[in-house]
């Protein structure tokens, strides 16, 4: 299976590259940005085009949101012309006001924010004009490297002594970029084998948690690991914010359909964070070893 991936520096694109390197049945062609001409798509002739999400669109510059939506629509038109399926990942923030219960796939977001409404309009066009599509709604992505790699940014801030500020009253399901990459490849392979299960799916980690609890847990696990390694690092703190005083805003995705259709199980975010922190510590050892190497005498 050949996949064309856009936005090479995105944390999900890097995760897809790592997953493809572990396998012999996937070939990736990765483009640096979101711009894609029909000629380039015809040249590569992938089995599917994958577009990573615009993470945290509520906090993004309006021009960036518009540019992302326009790029997705241009890619959709190229896919329609060339007969190539499209997999577009989107942020759970499209459900701006959340829901008291887990959100099913058939619930189309109806946000008030103009930027989010623009992204929803793009999704409506994809559903109407390109039958062979996957719109995959994700919880907040985390990874160690790449753009939008939330966990890597948290660790850098903590080690530099900076404080992390996060909402204590916004509940969501943090989602590992590595887990999404593995799931996407599996879903697209099943589609290539005739599953014919196009449409919208939710893909997020297990265990809903507040943003503040998530960053606090990351800080605690990081402190434990550094202490166990004998490192004395004064980490930044975690401070709770409160924006929804009446009741917490819950943005929890129901991921039952992706399990029923494709057999994809959600990965617990705590285990994924722990695994990534172990990898971060190993990389720290490697960096220290390189820094300690001096000229031969």
TrEMBL record:
Protein's name according to its UniProt entry: Sugar nucleotide-binding protein
Coiled coil: none
RmlD-like substrate binding domain location: 63-279
Listed Pfam families: RmlD_sub_bind (PF04321)
């Amino acid at each position: 299976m050949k996949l064309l991936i856009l936005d090479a520096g995105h944390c999900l694109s890097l995760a897809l590259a790592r997953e493809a390197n572990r396998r012999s049945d996937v070939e990736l062609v990765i483009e640096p940005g979101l711009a894609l001409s029909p000629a380039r798509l015809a040249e590569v002739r992938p089995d599917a085009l994958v577009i990573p999400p615009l993470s945290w669109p509520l906090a993004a510059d309006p021009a960036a949101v518009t540019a992302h939506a326009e790029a997705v629509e241009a890619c959709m038109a190229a896919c329609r012309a060339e007969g190539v399926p499209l997999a577009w990942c989107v942020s759970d923030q499209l459900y701006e006001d959340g829901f008291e219960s887990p959100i099913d796939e058939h619930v189309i977001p109806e946000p008030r924010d103009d930027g989010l409404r623009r992204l929803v309009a793009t999704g409506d066009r994809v559903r109407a004009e390109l039958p062979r599509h996957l719109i995959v709604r994700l919880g907040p992505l985390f990874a160690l490297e790449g753009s939008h790699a939330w966990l890597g940014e948290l660790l850098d801030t903590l080690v530099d002594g900076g404080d992390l500020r996060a909402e204590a009253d916004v509940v969501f399901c943090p989602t590992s970029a590595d887990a999404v990459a593995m799931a996407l490849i599996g879903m697209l392979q099943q589609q290539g084998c005739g599953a014919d299960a196009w449409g919208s799916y939710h893909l997020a980690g297990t265990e809903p948690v507040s943003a503040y609890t998530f960053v606090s847990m990351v800080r605690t696990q990081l402190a434990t690991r550094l202490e166990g390694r004998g490192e004395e690092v004064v980490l930044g703190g975690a401070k709770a914010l409160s924006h929804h005083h009446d009741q917490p805003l819950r943005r929890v995705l129901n991921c039952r359909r992706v399990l029923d259709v494709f057999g994809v199980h959600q990965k617990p975010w705590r285990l994924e964070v722990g695994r990534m922190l172990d990898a971060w510590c190993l990389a720290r050892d490697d960096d220290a070893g390189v820094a300690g190497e001096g000229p031969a005498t």
